[in-house]
Write a structure and sequence with these properties.
The protein is an alpha/beta fold. It has ten helices and 15 strands. The chain has two domains: 121 residues, Transcription Regulator spoIIAA; 202 residues, 3-Layer(aba) Sandwich (Rossmann fold). It has a seven-stranded mixed sheet with strand order 9-8-7-10-13-15-14, with helices on both faces. A four-stranded mixed sheet has the order 1-2-3-4.
Length: 338
């Protein structure tokens, strides 16, 4: 690594974020992306702050010997606050490296808290998965929910650790359902809710495949041809004021595949049918190669065929710590009134 070159790139990144960080700090936020390497000169490297933790993530090649020390030297010279440093590799060989790490040390003993909009979230540098417990690029969606949810019923799908659900509840939602297949994710979500004084009566966690729950709420048969669904929790059809749909790019389960690039309508149609007339679906698409206009046209056609056409559509732009200088950010978020 050319330390001098990295230092210049990191300094430019901090300069770009100066106004944003002042705003975030004033809002009670101490978690954000400090360096978005793919847009700021170092593809495959991301540097995030989570309160007292600085987390480096590599997505292509792992750091060469000595690189971590060089980066740390630059960070400690540029950042005004003390911090602990961790580095996770997310590219080739990351699963093997994580398994080796798990065998030696199942979980990091250090659990910290970070804040966003004054709300507290639990974070561990390393745990039983690869993803951090709070996705920083999804902040525009959480910001929208916190502002829009007062007095509303909210369905939070693929909720992970329930960050969006916590924001909705803190924003005054009457009821929030958080649906995820993983009990470990939902347990962090429960703890996040308790950490912020959110009563259990308004914050429901449902450990189930999202497809099974969503189709039932929408009044659509759960099973798919050739797929044995097995046992699942039963729900009556019902409608929500806000539906937050944040699926992974791809996954496969007993109720079918989640394929954001190839079959978004299979998710969006039941989400639309689970929203009240005049309600809103906040939908995300994480696939970098998916064009925004093409994706939005798919949503419009799907909603129209379902008999619930999109009345209005608002794009939630990424915030300044996730710069996209070509105007095509990987994460796309839209609010659809249906």
């Amino acid at each position: 690594m050319d330390t001098g070159s990295f230092e210049k790139s990191f300094s430019r990144a901090l300069d770009r974020r100066k106004a944003l960080l002042e705003t975030l700090h004033a809002e009670g936020t101490d978690c954000y992306r400090l360096f978005h390497g793919i847009s700021e000169g170092w593809p495959g490297l991301a540097i995030d702050r989570y309160g007292p933790l600085i987390l480096l993530q590599t997505f292509r090649e792992s750091l060469a010997p000595g690189d971590l020390g060089s980066i740390e030297e630059v960070l400690r010279g540029k950042l005004p606050h003390p911090f602990d440093l961790a580095c996770n590799h997310r590219g080739e060989g990351s699963t093997r490296a994580l398994e080796e790490w798990r065998r030696a040390r199942p979980e990091s003993p250090i659990e910290i808290q970070c804040k966003e909009f004054g709300l507290s979230y639990l974070i561990r540098a390393r745990h039983r998965g690869l993803d951090p417990w709070l996705f920083l690029d999804l902040r525009p969606g959480r910001r929208f929910l916190k502002a829009a949810a007062r007095g509303m019923s909210v369905l939070n799908l693929f909720s992970y650790t329930c960050g969006s659900g916590v924001c909705a509840a803190a924003g005054g939602a009457n009821e929030v359902w958080n649906v995820d297949f993983a009990s470990s994710n939902l347990e962090i979500g429960r703890r996040n809710a308790l950490l912020n004084g959110i009563p259990e009566a308004r914050f429901r966690v449902i450990e189930e495949d999202c497809l099974a729950v969503l189709r039932q709420l929408a009044g659509i048969p759960v099973g798919r041809r050739g797929v044995k669904a097995g046992r699942y929790q039963r729900f009556e059809p019902r409608l929500f004021d806000l539906v937050f749909l944040d699926p992974p790019a791809w996954s496969k389960g007993p109720f079918g595949a989640v394929d954001v690039a190839g079959d978004y309508p299979s998710l969006f149609k039941p989400a639309v049918l689970s929203a009240k007339p005049g309600g809103r679906v906040i939908a995300t698409n994480h696939v970098p190669t998916a064009g925004f206009d093409t994706w939005v046209s798919v949503l419009a056609r799907c909603a129209a065929k379902a008999g619930r056409p999109v009345r209005s559509l608002q794009r939630l732009e990424p915030e300044g710590d996730f710069p996209s200088f070509d105007g095509q950010p990987p994460l796309k978020i839209v609010v659809c009134e249906v």
